[in-house]
Amino acid sequence: MTQLIDDQLLGVVLRGGLPPLADVPVATTGLHYFRLCQAVLASRAVDGVLSAPFNGLPTDLRQRAMLALIQLPEELQLVSLRDLAPLIGRLRSRHDLNLLGMELLAASIHLDAEVFLSAPSPRLEAALRSEGRFVELVV
Known about the structure:
Blueprint: E1 2-5, H1 7-14, E2 26-29, H2 30-41, H3 52-55, H4 59-70, E3 76-79, H5 81-91, H6 99-111, E4 113-117, H7 122-130, E5 135-137
Parallel strand pairs: 1-2, 1-4, 2-3, 4-5
Helix pairs in contact: 1-2, 5-6
């Protein structure tokens, strides 16, 4: 089994926090990784939901978290669109989700993963459940 996490939960893990399930491999999608990188690496004077937790760390912990962000730890799986694109194409006929949601849905099927979200997404949650996927909101 694998656990699939979104951008906010990825940030938690990269800052040294624990994923929702202990001792279960962790994966994320390319778009969630991209959103976290964009938010943290391009952060301006105003902190956002994704960048504030990084910016608020003490210097040594922040440097460690930034290194983990720039070079994902080997144990963290990053699912490629090369593997997901055909499945996304097939799922598109059944689900009306944005690309972020479609990628997560396809990754959950591809990896046979349980999905953990940091914010409610009713349409995505419904799509995941209709495809027989486990989804849980972690707040």
